[in-house]
Structure formats: structure tokens, C-alpha cells
Amino acid sequence: MDTEIDSNFKLDEELAIQQQIAPITASDVADLLDSKIVIAGANISDVAFMETMLKISGFSDITGVHDGEGVLANLRQGIRDDICDVDLIVLDNNLSDMTAHDLRLIMDQFSEWRLIPIIALTKESQWDAAQLLTDLGHGVTSLHYRPLTAESFPPAVTTALAVKKERDLVSQRQMQLEDELATLKVMEARLQFSVTHDDLTGLSNRRRLEQALELSLTQTLNFNTSSALFYIDLDSFKVLNDAEGHEAGDTLLVQVADSLRSYFSTDDTLVRIGSDEYAVLVDNIDEHSAMDHAEGLRSLFDGYHFEFNEHYYHLSVSIGVKIIEGKNESSSGEVLSQANQACFTAKKRGRNRVHLFSLDDKEMHVLRHSVKWAPRIRAALKQENFLLELQPIYALASNSITHYECLIRMRGSDDTLYYPDDFIPVAEAMGLIHQIDLWVVNKAFDLMSQMPSDISISINLSGNIFLDRNLFPLVEKKLAQTGIEPNRIVFEITETSAISNFEQTKEMVERLRSLGCRFALDDFGAGFNSYSYLKHFPVDILKIDGGFITNLINDPVDQLLVKSMIDIAHSLGKTTVAEFVENQSTMDLLKSYGVDFVQGYLIGKPQVYLPNP
Ligand code: C2E
Ligand code: CA
Ligand code: CA
After folding, report:
1. Beta 456-460 vs 400-411: how paired, if at all?
2. Beta carbons of 160 and 11 less than 8 angstroms apart
3. Environment of ion ligand 2 (residues, CB < 5 A)
4. 380 and 352, same structural domain?
5. Cβ atoms within 10 Å of 202's Cβ, excluding its own
6. How far apart are alpha carbons 479 and 444 in whole angstroms?
7. How far is the CA of 417 from the centre of ligand 2 (A)?
8. Are 235 and 378 found together in one domain?
9. Mean pLDDT throughout 306-328?
10. pLDDT (tens digit per residue) in 387-435
11. I want to staple 139 with a disulfide (CB 3.0 to 4.6 A). Which of 64, 118, 221, 295 is the partner?
């Protein structure tokens, strides 16, 4: 007898180890006592004996049957919502109507039945473990032979049930994960649509245009063709909008979109870029045809009258044309800004006209601007006429200010303050931006050493700074000099600035992170590829672009987008900051979305930092 028990336990033990089951605890056993067990055997008293043994051990839901049909009837009855509630079958292979193997074949046809564990019994004289295992296949968890003993049978039942429970948990978790992934995918798809379309007109939006421009850049480069980008601005939209109200304005915008749809082909990319600005990208067109096309469009609108409340408005458009030839272009953003400049020139020259972009225009523009600004920037660098203002960032979890963002200002000769939009573009164009960035890093560390040690600071970096060999040694040196904890330093980069030097930027980001500094992806969502950057850039923090926040309480699309950005960021283990938070209701809404930090005029405007005396 002893040897029987031993051999049974050994088999159970091995099976348990094979299935990587943790030791069964008393509370696990208690949970298992409600399991549904079917006992099948031709001999009525054997079945009754087994039922009794299990009842004494505490099991409550036991059904005894005497043939294979009886087992199948229980299996059929047990199915609810594609799940079978039978947890275990104890099967004596002496059934009159079918062999254990026949039963197995039937059970295999239904995936829920296939996974039900079986304890197989046979007579000692017919003991052929190998044969039984082949007959019963994967479902069998242990083999016993009659007569059964009270020492070996109930523990075998418990083990088999524990195995099943574990497996059910694993597959449940797997299903849950699949569900979560599917939800995330639906969310992303929804996001993709609202991210690339304009609600009012149904035309594509700026992000979609940037994607299409990327394709055109590649295509014109590789196939030596040219494309054209038309930038179209309605000349007197504001007059109409102010006089007749938004409803009239919206109607006109939709009508213009319809006219564009009928004038251009379905292959062209039609976009509403701004409130009354449209763009159309046409591939495979040369300069001559593009100008003809633009002229046709201009005259189409020139003869157009818009009627509202019996008032008639004469409409006209200014059109900027940019010819795209891959070999001459640097980026989609540049192409768009050149088309915009051409449109601006068309407007300045009297409206209702077409202007073709030429490099000379742009150079003239930057040059004119830089003539004034470049010497000012150089002087400011020399005379320390730059200063940093700090804007507080508020942690919702601790209800306290935990960060400040450094924002640079330039002091003019008459003490006026100039803001970054005035001088950063020129500094970039004139190659002065590196010096500015290094100045800011240096200054930010000096400020930090006067601040409490639980405050972190964010430093904006321009994209090109990663090409500068001085940045990394400077950060290393300042960390050593000041003894500041590296994780108190957050560098902010925008995806647009990172795009141009993707590899170098990524490498530098990784090096600075290896020092312990953190990174934030600034203006998140404003670019067209934000989600893929999030995947590829090792950033810790995601700063949702202020453009999504200013009108958040009134704009359901922004709400959907912001909510998804926060969810996706969190599922990637990143924290989120919302900028441009200007009022309490916006903050409350963001809080309900689970955003981690808020920044904006509600919390505080950027100010010069004065340490407590
Ligand atoms: P950013 O990094 O997105 O900075 C946020 C801008 O929004 C700042 O403008 C800030 O003053 C403004 N702002 C903050 N809260 C609110 C709000 O509640 N409502 C509104 N409407 N605006 C708010 P600022 O200082 O003019 O900076 C503009 C941009 O210039 C910055 O955008 C950043 O890209 C760049 N910049 C600023 N400082 C530096 C710097 O030190 N180095 C570099 N490379 N770029 C900088
Ligand atoms: Ca920033
Ligand atoms: Ca920003």
C-alpha cells in the first residue's frame, strides 16, 4: 500500500513541478472546495465511495455518472457563455459505452472541454500507464488504480484543481491584456483620425499635411519630379466674421472647402491650416502648370459672392505657391513656412494675387530681420543682457510647486524686455543659438544652487545644441561644481527640433540621461509624429502642447486628445505636464484626467527669481 501512495504522490509532484505550481496553501484549498467535479465509472459502489471520500474532504459539488454519455451530458449542461463550469473529471476507464480515448476525442472538439483536467483510474491488472496517457492525452493530470485510498485520492483531486485554477488565471490575465491592448489600439485609431482632420470642413489638417509633405519630399528627391504647395488665405474673412458672426463665418469656410474639392483632384491633399487659411499639395506638377492652376483658383474666387442674410460679400484669395524639388528642400516645416511667406507677400502686394516663393524672398526676410537683431544678440551675450525668468510647475499629487521652467528674456537698451519669439529664430539662423543655450545652462545651474534642494528645474534646449561638443562637458562640470542632484535637472526638447538631427539628438539624450538628468518632450502633440517620437526618444516627461489646453473646457476634440495623451504616456511609464493652464476649470478637468503636473498663468507667470534673504 505504501508504495502505491508513494508512486501516486511522485507522479502528482512531478506534474505539479512541470506546471510550475506554487505550493498549495490552506486558503487555496478552501477556495477549491466549491469546484465542480464529475466522477464517471461503471461500478456504482466505486463511484459512491469516491463521492463520499471527496465529501468528507470538504468538496461539495460532485456529480456521479456511470457512462461516457453521462459525462458529456454534464459537460454540455455546464456551458455558459462559451465557458464550461466543470472543473475536473475523475474517469474510470471501465465505461460501458465508450473508451477513455473515445471520450477524449469528443472533448478535444471544444476548446473549453479540452482544458478540463482528468484523473484517470484503472484496475491494477489492466494497469498500463503509458497507454492511458496516450489515450487521454494532455488533459490527464494523474493516474490511479483501484482500489483507491483516502490518503492518495483527495490530495490528487486538490492538486489537479489547483493546476486548473492557475491555468485559468493565466489565460484570464492574457485575455485582459489583449482587451487592454485592443482598447489602446482603438484609442490610437480614433486619435489618428481626429489628429489628421479638421472638424468643420472635413478637410485634412496641418498634421496630415506634414505627413503628405514628407512623402512628397522623398518622392521628388528619388524620382526627380516636382510638386507644388498652394497656401491660400481668404482676403476679407475677418470682415464677414465680425459683421455676421461665427455662424456665417463657418458657412463660408465650408463653402470654400467645397469649392477647393471641386477645383482640385481627389489625389491632391486638401487641408485647412488655420482659421481662414487652406493649403493644397499637388504632386507631379511643374512650375508653369502650378502657376496656371493657382491663377485659375484665384480667378474662381474673384468672381465669387457670398450671401448671408441678404448681404453680399465679395470674396478673394491670396495664394502663395511653393514648388517642391526634393534636392533643394530641408524639411516639411521649411516648405510650409516658405509657402506661407509667399502668401504673405501676395497679401502685402495688394491681395487677390498669386506669388511664387523664391529663395531670394526668404533670405531678404531673414536678412532684414537679422540686420537689426544679430548685433543685439551678440551684444547681449557679451554684456550679459540676457536673463532667466522662472515659471512654477505644480504637482497635483502633493499640491505643491516642485519645478520651475527657465524662460529666457533679453533686456533691450531702454530696459524693454524682449521675448524668445523675437530673437530665437534669428539666433538660430545666424548660428548664435548654441551660445545662448550654453549661457542658459550655466545660468540655470547658478540659480539652482540658491534654491531649496527639493526643487527641480527645466531648461529648454534648441535642437542644434546636440551638435555642440561643449554641452556635455559643461553639464558634467556644473554638476560637479554645484553638487546638485542630476535628477533635479530636466532638459526640454521639442520633437520638431529633434527631427533634424535624430541620431545625434538621441545619442546626446542618452548620454545626459546616463548622468542622471531627465528629459521632457515639449509641445507634445503639436507635431505630426509625436507618438512615434515618444516611442523612440528616451524621455521621462511628456509636456502636452499648450494649444490643446487653452480651449480645453469647450473643445471635445481637445478633451479626447488630451485624455488619450495622458493615458498613453502613463501606460508607457511617463509623467505628464499640461502647460498654458489659465483657469481653475481647466485645472479641475485635467486633474480628473489624471495629469501629474500643471503649469500656466493660473499657477504663476514667469518671473525673475529672488532668493529669500
Ligand atoms: P515653451 O517652452 O513652450 O514655453 C512656454 C511659453 O508659454 C513661454 O513663452 C511662457 O511664458 C508661455 N506661457 C506660460 N504659461 C502660459 C499660459 O498660461 N498661457 C499662455 N498663453 N502662455 C503661457 P516664452 O517665454 O515667450 O517662450 C516661448 C518659447 O521660446 C518657449 O516655448 C521655448 O520654446 C522658447 N524658449 C524660451 N526660453 C528658452 C531658452 O532658454 N532656450 C531656448 N532654446 N528656447 C527657449
Ligand atoms: Ca518648454
Ligand atoms: Ca511648450
Report:
1. parallel
2. no
3. 460, 492, 522
4. no
5. 13
6. 11
7. 19
8. no
9. 87
10. 999 999 999 999 999 999 999 999 987 888 999 988 887 887 778 899 9
11. 118
> What are the CA-CA distances from residue 445 to residues 295, 313, 442, 476, 607 (Å)?
56, 58, 6, 11, 17
Packed helices 471-482 and 433-448: angle between N→C axes, nearest 10 degrees = 10
The minimum-distance atom of ligand 1 relative to the CA of 389 is: 25
**Could you give the angle at which helices 2-18 and 153-196 cross, rounded to 10 degrees?**
10
Domain holding 218, by residue range, is 206-358
Cβ < 6 Å from ligand 1: which residues? Answer: 391, 406-408, 419-421, 424, 437, 440, 460-462, 522-523, 579-580, 582, 600-601, 606
Place of cell 532638459: 491
Question: Which distant-in-sequence residues (6+ apart) come within 8 Å of 276 by Cβ?
Answer: 233, 234, 237, 238, 253
pLDDT tens digits, one per residue of 179-229: 777 777 666 666 666 667 788 888 998 888 988 999 999 999 999 999 999
Out of 329, 358, 387, pick the residue that ends a domain: 358
The number of beta carbons lying within 10 Å of the beta carbon of residue 513 is 17
Q: Which ligand is nearest to the CA of 393?
A: 1
Do the domain assignments include residue 531?
Answer: yes
Cα distance between residue 158 and residue 164, in whole Å: 10
Rounded CA separation 494/527 (Å): 9
